[in-house]
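WARN retry 2 of 3 for item q-0093 after timeout on previous attempt; input resubmitted unchanged.
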Amino acid sequence: MSNTTSGCPIHGGGAPSAGESIVAEEKAQLDFSNSMSYGDYLQIDTILGAQKPLSPTHDELLFIVQHQTSELWMKLMLHELTAAMAHIAQDDLPPAFKMLARVSKIMEQLVHAWDVLATMTPPEYTAMRPYLGQSSGFQSFQYRCIEFSLGNKNAAMLKPHAHAPERLALVHAAYEAPSLYDEALKLMARRGIAVPASHLQRDWTQPYTASPEVEAAWLQVYRDPKAHWDLYQLAEELTDLEDAFRLWRFRHVTTVERVIGFKRGTGGTGGVSYLRKMLDVVLFPEIWTLRTAL
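OK item q-0093 returned
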């Protein structure tokens, strides 16, 4: 008969099971009283202790886990984006390609995460919504840093973080810095491709404005990809990234509409109406428009 401690069975004698024999044959380490374990390394107790539902509803845990895991993915996304931009600024493209490809894959994970949240029905969400107060994903400082790093600058989006100076500093730094696309254009100019000065020396806090001259610069790359192979590959990495970002946004708006309909968001926006407007934002416009001109 087995004894149990905290719900985990411990073998109480007799012949070892097949599983126990395999563990013994593999000489797996089982005693972690004096060494770092998996849970220690990942700080599992801290992570699993961070879900603190405020309502009595069963489904709030899903809502919390969904958004906490998304924030972890966004942390990794920012880590990769920041490093990719630094490599592009240093004319070191191979590592940047790997990092940008990883960002696109992270966005795929975030797209599929909406499938899980979409299992929450309108009555289930309505039961827990009063406990959210004014909190909203609209206020995610990491998401704002991602949008700013991708060029969607908006001074109004600094205000939700004014109460938290450390977070505000991070968002403000992304707001004032050149975006990923700005770095790509500066790289093209360094490679001798004509990019207008208005797009190389400008106020980085302003939203990007599409330019026929920039489209002509990208067309030069696309019309002779062999001569500009790494720039051509960079453009396609940017295309992949924006494609994935659009899917992420689209899946967000459809999930919100499915769960709350056209109610206003907890953060004060119009909810679905606001999210639909965001679908029209184009991050790297000339990389898309050049396809018509080819």
